[in-house]
Amino acid sequence: MEYSDPIFVVIKKGILHFLHGFLPEWTVVIISIMLSITAIAIFGPVTMMYLTWLERKVVGRMQNRWGPNRVGIFGLLQPIADGIKMLTKEDIVPQDADKVTHFLAPVMVVIPALLVFSVIPFGRGMTAVNLNVGLLFFLAISTLTTIAIFMGSWGSRNKFSLLGGMRAVAQMVSYEIPMVMSVVPVILATGTLSTVSIVEAQLGGKWFIFTPWGFFAAIVFFLCGVAEVNRTPFDLPEGESEIIAGFHTEYSGMKFALFYMAEFMSAFAISGLTVTLFLGGWGGPVLPSWAWFLLKTYALIFIMIWFRGTLPRFRVDQLMGFAWKLLLPFTLLNIFVAALWQILPSPKNLLVSGIAEAVILVIVFFASRKDSPTKRTYIFAD
Amino acid sequence: MDVLHCLARFGFIAATLVTLAAAVMVVSLRNIFHCALALILVLLGVAATYISLKAEFFAVIQILLYVGAIMTLVIFAIMLTSKIADTTVPQTNRQSLVSFAILAMFDVFFIGSVIKTSWKVNAVTMAANVDAKVLGMAFMNEYVFPFEIISVVLIVALVGAIILGRSDQ
Amino acid sequence: MSGIPVSYYVIFSGLLFSIGLYGVLVRRHVVGILMSIEIIINAANINLVAFSRYVAAKPEMGQVFAAFVIVLAASAAAVGLAIVLSVYRNRRTIYTDEINLLKW
Question: Strand, helix or coil at B48?
């Protein structure tokens, strides 16, 4: 087991060492960067393909049916069949659509989804780029998806698309703020924005999810992440029975496949970031580091798929009320509780911050409830 | 590594040219939505310039605030105030030739005088490393008063925008 | 150290500023004018950050100022766009040469 942990790092170092013999120094630097980019570019879409398979299987089993099981054993070749289908479909562009915008929107949705894979630590020493503002880079790049959804909905010249696009953007912008605010306690506790250092601060079993502020911050961050990638129960913008298909109504073939790919890659990236920030990243006792990371990430993705199979969809006013009235005050007060945790000495801080957290939760929950409507009185009926 | 420095300089010049081309597109395209997309390219190019100035935290803040929030606001405003098929009107008023001439002359004069000046640089400052911690300490220690005033300005602007944008019911 | 001289950044910000100024003087669409103002503000920000890296006494001074400038630009854009919405509701047009009556 000792050898399998740094296996990818060793492979990459071996290749670079081999090339170092007969290539100048600057070429080796560029090839090192290209190797990381190639690894991510292969890992991203393959992950997406098998996530679609996993989702269809799991949702099918939750609905007491098999899921895809004809194409290959257990349906494992189904994503390949899906890929062939999407590549060979006719690419329909509406006549009055704004061609530049309609063409660029799927491209611009995939770019942030793939770019954020570069700051997620997949294992010990296996981060593509160790930026010292890595966490903020992740949050900033995921705001580019909003613009791409605008472009998709406006460029299609379709009123349903526009409506779906506006709702999607309103939802994404509302859920960005609790997402950023719920990460602030982690930055407070570790004093750094680099994802690699955040994982290293949680080694040895001191995961942030076991602290009072971390538990609730992890739940809030995960929920906001689910809202950001437009998955059920927050998938009103693309709800298949609500608004035809929302902002990607007019897209067919490969462009739709790109939207679909961006959604699943973002789901993986958000799960990966939750694991990095709150669940200890790649830390764990026996298995190699990258195996722990994939295990934890897929556990969170399973929870996302579980949400999809179980929960109904939020209505748009319930969605916005949830973000602004419940999550935002809660995350702001959570920062204070995290500060209390940092300052007080060790046995007392658990008690104080646990009680403070429970009090805040109760207050915010009851303050954000609407009054129940009074019973209707019928004038003319009996 | 001289080649990497040349590549860095080449990257900076490429980012500069892309930003200037996108800025020209912002001021001259007919379809206002395309102008907004070109403005996003300008803002991303400016963020790339900040990265070449070794201000990475500031570049990420620029993307988060400008592209993520302000451009969303601008695009919402465009969508709410324009009809979808609105591209056939000319976008420049009568002052275009005169403005172009005067600004071109100003540019030539400006670039000439910048090239002729010898700029003294401060080697200590160039070697320093500004990251989030340094900026955070600056905000909390020396610049705390403007920081608090800026929060008040933001609240005032927010309330003012809500009142101005409300319909008259 | 990056071997890019300061004058490159000053020229770049000057050109961006003049393009933005051309946009403010020339465009008819009100949101277009606001976007050109954003270009002007970004040009000024580049200038601030470049000088704070090369010349300033403390290297974070320019970035702090530029952060304040971004916040003020955001509030200006928010209030300006609220005014644009208000004008659109009353006059049904957003081209500056058609908004030329006070009240009738």
Answer: helix
Name the DSSP class of C95: B
> Of chain B residues 12-41, which have a CB less than 8 A from chain A?
31, 33-34, 37, 40
Considering only CB atoms, which chain B residues are within 8 Å of A98? Answer: 31, 33
10-residue stretch averages of pLDDT, chain A, 382 residues long: 72 83 81 88 88 90 87 84 86 80 89 91 86 91 89 81 82 91 92 90 86 90 90 70 62 83 91 92 83 92 91 82 87 89 79 80 77 68 60
User: Phi and psi for A24 in degrees, rounded to 5?
Assistant: -65, 165
- The two three-digit tokens of residue B78, written as one number: 């465009």
Task: Decide if B3 and A26 are in contact by the 8 Å CB cutoff.
Answer: yes
Per DSSP, C92 falls in state: S
Question: Whole-angstrom Cα distance, residue B41 to residue A73?
Answer: 47
What tokens appear for C14 in the block? 């000057």
Under DSSP, is residue B49 helix (H, G, I), strand (E, B) or coil?
helix
Q: How far is the C-alpha of B132 from the C-alpha of B134, rounded, in Å?
A: 6
Tell the burial category of A140 from Cβ atoms under 10 Å away from its Cβ (0-12, 13-18, 19+): buried
> Within 13 A of A6's CA, how many CA atoms are on the CB side?
8
Collapsing DSSP to helix, strand or coil, B83 comes out as coil
User: Per-domain residue ranges for chain C?
Assistant: 6-91
B60 at the C interface (CB within 8 A)?
Answer: no
Q: What's the token pair of residue A152?
A: 């998709």
Residue tagged 């009235």 (tokens)? A325
Q: Count of CB atoms within 10 A of residue A379's CB?
A: 5
DSSP A376: P
Domain boundaries, chain B: 1-86, 121-169
Tokens found for residue A46: 């393959």
Q: Where are the alpha helices (DSSP H) in chain C?
A: 6-26, 30-54, 61-91
Tokens 């010990």, residue located:
A124
Report the 3 state secondary structure along A149-194. Answer: HHHHHHHCCCHHHHHHHHHHHHHHHHHHHHHHHHHHHHHHHHCCCC
CA-based angle A342:A122:A287, to the nearest 5? Answer: 90
Residue with tokens 């955001």: C74
| DSSP per-residue string spanning A265-311 | HHHHHHHHHHHHHHS-TT--SSS-HHHHHHHHHHHHHHHHHHHHHHP
Any C CB within 8 A of B139 CB = yes
pTM of the model: 0.90
- Cα torsion C86, C89, C94, C96: sign: negative
CATH architecture, range C6-91: Orthogonal Bundle (1.10)
CB A71 within 8 A of CB A62: no
Q: Which CATH architecture has domain B1-86?
A: Up-down Bundle (1.20)
Burial readout C10-36 (b: 16 or more C-beta within 10 A, e: otherwise): bbbbbbbbbbbbbbbbbbbbbbbbbbb
Structure tokens at B98: 């005169």
Closest-CA residue to A105 (of A50, A148, A42, A150): A148
Q: Which residues in chain B have Cβ-Cβ distances shorter than 8 Å to C6?
A: 119, 121
Q: B61 CA to chain A: closest CA distance, Å?
A: 7
Are the C-beta atoms of residues A289 and A123 closer than 8 Å to each other?
Answer: yes
Distance CA A338, CA A186 (A): 8
Q: What is the pLDDT of residues B19-50, one digit of tens each?
A: 999 999 999 888 888 999 999 999 999 999 99
